[in-house]
């Protein structure tokens, strides 16, 4: 690998063979390669050193499964920079080293902020066409508004309910508690965002399995917003609940609370994840909204589902 030039950022690629315990390696490697390419430009000039912090993951598509023994090729490039943030596009290819067959398995868009303890300016890049910069500015404004919207809604809390009825939100909602250890963190003692992504995926899978009582796979991630960094030693509570169900898929909303053992501060992330049944041949039990808030989230989820379905079908390219 080689670092990108500031004016013409070059794509980078990393690869590794898939092992039995690599269930979430694609998510972790997507975050790692994005952090590498977004950190390089700001440390290539005589200025304060900084490490890029993941602020938002959006438009993540899980197009095809990746099997044990295959080689994962993760490539990334910088597609837009604002004054304080960087947009990174990541593609994941799988390769069967016996047959030579390759296929696109994952696509993701990530936004990074240039900060660890303070926000720094991002060196501008030169675009080959004016249309690229204008399209990037539009994407930047859209993601910023969506990220701020989830931050305003951070008062939502997933509360347990005694003796809930089947197929209701309360029946399948689930939580995990995780202590942040050294192996979860970067050299600066902040949590790898890939670790949080893995835990949110696990909770979403539990919620979906409780509701459907069958095997499921993650089809896509609508968005994950990281509003604050989580430090080593914090206790994370990851809570998931259903937002929407279609005939063959279910959208799960996940909240992550981080409580510091040393003080009373509390951090929260928000994610909306869409999971579909494995094989897609069984009908999905329909969610039964009970409260006005649940009905509102259902309608919001239905809108996201229709948009995501159209985008996902557009990215689903037939493989040889």
UniProtKB/TrEMBL annotation:
- Cellular compartments annotated: Cytoplasm
Q: Which CDD domains match?
A: BFIT_BACH
Q: Which SUPFAM superfamilies match?
A: Thioesterase/thiol ester dehydrase-isomerase (SSF54637)
Note the superkingdom of the native organism: Eukaryota
InterPro entries given for it? Cytosol_ACT, HOTDOG_ACOT, HotDog_dom_sf, Thioestr_dom
Instruction: Show the PROSITE patterns listed in the entry.
Output: HOTDOG_ACOT
Keywords of this protein's UniProt record, alphabetized? Cytoplasm, Hydrolase, Lipid metabolism, Repeat, Serine esterase
Enzymatic class: hydrolase
Region annotation (Disordered) ranges: 275-295
E.C. number: 3.1.2.2
GO cellular component: a single term: cytosol
Show the Gene3D superfamilies listed in the entry.
Answer: Hotdog Thioesterase
Q: Which residues form the HotDog ACOT-type domain?
A: 1-118, 170-281
Give the record's GO biological process terms: acyl-CoA metabolic process; fatty acid catabolic process
Q: Which PANTHER family match?
A: ACYL COENZYME A THIOESTER HYDROLASE, CYTOSOLIC ACYL COENZYME A THIOESTER HYDROLASE-LIKE-RELATED
Q: What is the protein name given in its UniProt record?
A: palmitoyl-CoA hydrolase
The root-end lineage is: Eukaryota, Metazoa, Chordata, Craniata, Vertebrata
């Amino acid at each position: 690998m080689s670092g990108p030039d500031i004016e013409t950022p070059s794509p980078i690629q990393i690869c590794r063979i898939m092992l039995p315990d690599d269930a979430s390696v694609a998510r972790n490697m997507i975050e790692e390669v994005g952090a590498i390419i977004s950190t390089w430009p700001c440390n290539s000039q005589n200025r304060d050193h900084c490490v890029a912090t993941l602020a938002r993951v959006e438009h993540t598509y899980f197009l095809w499964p990746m099997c044990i023994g295959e080689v994962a090729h993760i490539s990334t490039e910088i597609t837009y920079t604002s004054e304080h943030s960087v947009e990174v596009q990541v593609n994941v290819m799988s390769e069967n080293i016996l047959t030579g067959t390759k296929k696109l398995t994952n696509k993701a868009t990530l936004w990074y902020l240039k900060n660890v303890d303070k926000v720094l300016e991002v060196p501008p890049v030169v675009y080959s066409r004016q249309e690229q910069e204008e399209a990037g500015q539009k994407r930047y404004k859209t993601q910023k508004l969506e990220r701020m919207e989830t931050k305003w809604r951070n008062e939502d809390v997933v509360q347990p309910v005694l003796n809930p009825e089947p197929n209701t939100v309360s029946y399948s909602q689930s939580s995990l508690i995780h202590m942040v250890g050294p192996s979860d963190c970067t050299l600066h003692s902040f949590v790898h965002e890939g670790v949080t992504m893995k835990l949110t995926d696990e909770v979403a899978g539990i919620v979906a399995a409780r509701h459907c009582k069958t095997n499921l796979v993650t089809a896509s991630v609508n968005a994950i917003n990281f509003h604050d960094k989580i430090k080593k030693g914090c206790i994370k509570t990851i809570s998931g609940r259903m937002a929407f169900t279609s005939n063959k898929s279910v959208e799960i909303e996940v909240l992550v609370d981080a409580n510091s053992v040393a003080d009373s501060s509390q951090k929260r992330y928000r994610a909306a994840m869409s999971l579909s049944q494995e094989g897609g041949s069984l009908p999905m039990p329909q969610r039964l909204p009970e409260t006005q808030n649940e009905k509102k989230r259902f309608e919001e989820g239905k809108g996201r589902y229709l948009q995501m379905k159209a985008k996902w079908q557009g990215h689903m390219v037939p493989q040889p």
